[in-house]
User: Fold these one by one.
Assistant:
Number 1:
Amino acid sequence: MNLNDKRIAILLSGGVDSSVVLYELVRQGLHPDCFYIKIGPDQNEEWDCSSEEDMEMAMAVSHKYGCRLEVVDCHQEYWNQVTAYTMEKVKAGFTPNPDVMCNRLIKFGAFHEKAGKDYDLIATGHYAQTEIDEQDRKWLCTSPDPVKDQTDFLAQIYDWQLRKAFFPIGHMMKEEVREIAEREHLVNAKRKDSQGICFLGKINYNDYIRRYLGEQPGDVLELETGKKIGQHKGLWFHTIGQRHGLGFGGGPWFVVKKDMQQNILYVSKGYDPQTAYKQEFRIHDLHLLTAPIDTKNICFKIRHTPEFHHAILKAEKGGIYTVHSDKPIHGVAPGQFCVLYDEAHHRCYGSGEITV
C-alpha cells in the first residue's frame, strides 16, 4: 500500500503504543494529523480519571514530531452508547465487554462521524494486522505477540471500519515498541499500560456499574447442596467462572450460575469444578468482518487471553450457531463475545455473542 497519497488520521491516547505509531509514520516521511478522543466521567462524578495526563502526553508527542493535535469530544456518545449497552447487558445477567463496543461505536464510529470521514486511513496503536487477499478483501489478522494481540477487541467493528483501519505497530512485539520509545526519548516510554475500562482511566468496573445500577443484595447458595454461604451485593457484580473477589470463607468458590428472577448467586466449591466448564455452547448475532466463515475447523477465544481453542461451528435455526469445542472451556458466560478465527488462528472471522 502506497501511503504517500493517503490522508492519515492517528488516534493518540497518551500511551506508548500510539506514540510509537506516530514515530513510525513520521519516520516514513508521512505527516499524519493527530487526534485525541476526549471522554470524561459522567455528569458531576468525581472519579479519579487520568484523562488530563493522557491529553498532556498526546500533546507532547505530537509536538515532538511537528504534527497538529485536535481534541475530539466523544463524551456524550460514549455515555449514551457504550454505557447504555453495558448496563443493559449486566442488568439482564450477561457479561458484556465495553471495550469491544468502544472500538465499534467510538474509535471507529463517533470519531469517524466527527473527523475520521475526511481521511483515508485511521491509525491506532492496536496490536493487530491486516492483509489483502487475491480477491482484494481486507482481513483482520492476529499480531505475532500472543499476549498483546487485540483482534478480539476489534472483532465487532464493521467491514467499512476495517477497510479504513491501519495498525502500524501490529507486526511488533511489545518489547520492540518499548525499545523504540526509549530510544526516541518519548515522554511516555516507561508509562504503564492502561488496565481499566476503555477511556475511563482508573475507574473500577464495579464502581462503574454501581453508579448506574446500585446494589441489590441476595443470597449466595452452594449449587450442589443449596446451603446458604453468604450474600452478594448484586448479581451484576459477578460473572460465570469468577473465582476471585468473592469473599466467602471455606473456599475456593467459583460462580457457576445466576438466577436473575430469584436474585440468587450459585457457587461451587473445589478446584475447577466440572460445573464451571462447557464443551458446547451457543452464540447468536454472528458478526462477520470480511467473508463467510469456514465452519468445519475454527479457533476461538471467549476472553482476552493468549490461548486459542479449536472447535467446529454448526449452524442452527434462527441465526444461532453451536460451538463444539475440542475440550471443555472454563467460565463460558452469556454476553461474552466468542471471537472466531481460522484454524491457524491467523485471520479473524468476526465474533458472536454467547447466549443461554
Number 2:
Amino acid sequence: MIVGAGGHARVVADALLCQGVEVRGFVDQDLSLHGTYVYGRPVLGAEGALDDEALVGCDLVNGLGGIGREQGSPLRRRVQERLEAAGRRFVGVRHPTAHVSPRAELAADVQVLAGAFVQPGARIGTGSVINTRAVVEHDCRLGAFVHCAPGSVVCGAVSLGDDVHVGAGAVVRQGLTLGRGVVVAAGAAVVANQNVAAVLMGVPARVRG
C-alpha cells in the first residue's frame, strides 16, 4: 500500500510495478481522490482504510513528496513516524534503472528512483529519497528523511543532516556539511558548510535574505 496518491506516489508506484512488486492501492487524506484509480489501483480512502483486516499485513511505501511542512516538521516524516508507531512497516523502492553500489549502506525504506546513482561508501538514513537521476557520490553520509531532488549531485564525502532538501539540479561540493533542515534551492551550487537550518540559493549559494 502506498501512503499518498499525488505525483510522488505515482512515481514510486511506477517504480514498484517495474520491480514486479504488487501494489494493492493507495490511501490519501484528500477526499477528492477517494474512489479514484491510479494505474488501475484504487485510492481506498484516508489512512484509516489501512486498518481494514485485509490490509493490516501489507507493507507501506511513503508516497508523500516534496518538503511540505506541518507544525515545523516535514509532513513526510510526521506521517511515516505516526504509522510506524502504530506498528506498520515501511519498505523501500529501487527502480530497475537505478545504480546502487553493493558497498553502499541504505536504510530499508530508502527510495532510489529512475536513473539515480548511489556510489560506494555512501550511507543513507531512513525515509530518504534519491530522486530521478540524482547522484550521491562516494562516502557521503545522509541523515533521515533527506530528499535529493531530480538531477541533484551530492559530491564525495558530503554530510547531510536530517530533513535536508537538495533541490532539482543543485550541486553540493565535496567534503561539505549541511545541518538539519537546510534547504538547497533548485540549481544552487553549495560551496561552503551550512550548519544552521536555512534556505540556500544561487551560484555560489548564499542564505536567502
